[in-house]
Amino acid sequence: MKNTPPETGGFFARDRAMHPPAYTPWYKTTVLRSPQRALISLDGTKSEVTGPVFGHNMLGELDNDLILNYAKPGEMPIGQRIIVHGRVVDERGKGVSGALVEFWQANAGGRYRHKKETYLAPLDPNFGGFGRTIADDDGYYWFKTIKPGPYPWPNGVNDWRPAHIHFSVFGHGFAQRLITQMYFEGDPLIWICPIVKTIPDEEAIKRLIAPLDMAATVPHDMRAYKFDIVLRGRRSTFFENRKEGN
Amino acid sequence: MVQSLGYLKELPSQTAGPYVHIGCTPNFSGIEGVYDTDLGSGPLYNDKTKGERITVRGHVFDGAQTPLKDALIEIWQADADGFYNSPSETRGTADPNFFGWARCPGDMATGEFVFETIKPGRVPFNDGRLMAPHITFWIVARGINIGLQTRMYFGDEEEANAQDPVLARIEHKVRVPTLIAEREGDTYTFNIRLQGADETVFFDI
Questions:
Q1: What is the model's pLDDT at position A245?
Q2: Residue A141 catalytic?
Q3: Nearest beta carbon to residue A58 from set B39, B77, B141
Q4: What is the tens place of the pLDDT at every residue in B97-156?
Q5: Does residue A45 have a pLDDT over 70?
Q6: Contact B16 A241 (CB under 8 A)
Q7: What is the CATH superfamily name and number for domain A7-230?
Q8: What values do phi and psi take at A46, rounded to 5?
């Protein structure tokens, strides 16, 4: 860890006009799962500006290698081998050291390893579909996986999710908690997906699309996609109206 | 033109989807042998943790009063003396035997979530007034586009609740009880209602 004092300021207000609203009826499940009352605004108290810290001792050695973490000895999953890498930064561009990043996804055929999933594409016996890692001092993270396939889902009559990887991220405060999805450059399904289209702002959608990163690609081995994760920024302590230590 | 402020924008949220368990609680979803244990599972306390042991349980209901069976609930709370186990805690050092965070998926058959934890101490609001004891909740699920933040307060802390600066900010007093869990023995029941007449208060924190 860096030898800098921990930050204690509150977080920049969330831009709720950029995030998807709760009620987006074209994504049908939101209809009964969206609050109808306005949110109550609350500038971060100690309860929100603090958050848990996860240590490397909580993770296993292969946790960021989805190619190997479920495979039988000597075997590997089928599909496009990729590296996903990037930085976890906050809105000030500052790396979020020690951020826990968890991810999960379908296999190359679009099938999830979950008992409630019934899509007819087969499971891959060597692919679990999940992993996690802790960002380094500069916020940098990476993992190896198989590029997921698109899959159909019961929403509209013929809705297909674009290829995507789910991300769950912890910053330094519980108010930074974020779950989102990463999409892949050039996928035509992105722009017709009802879940993507819960985000009202096209520029915001583009920030969820990872570009192909040939510079990080390993020749004859793995392609790479770069995905930077931006969490809420944090005010400096001198903006706080309280003295240290109260 | 003026200089650019140069700030980045937070990534937009997306739903956790129906298979959030694969990534966050794989053992719970039946994928064993990859992670030793699911992060945040089990009691929040051990033998050495200070404080009163309690159980917090409840359901998340949708607008048709049906429990969600695919929600993931996370909690974050202070220790028995009101300190958070976080580098951003500047007032003192938290109980080293209390991590303060946990997650629990709703039971796949009933939707019920259960946390075995301790009752937190009081934490000051930004102006120094004490808040009533509370646990911060974060709820994600299929059909929830951005995680919902709320707080659970304790039904047997009437006096502290009456002075709480956050509860005081809720204009419609009739909504305050949606944040207060009733006690029965050592168990507090906290039901979260996403939509409707008795909708839980959610915060923009």
A1: 42
A2: no
A3: B39
A4: 999 999 999 999 999 999 999 999 999 999 999 999 999 999 999 999 999 999 999 999
A5: yes
A6: no
A7: Aromatic compound dioxygenase (2.60.130.10)
A8: -50, -30
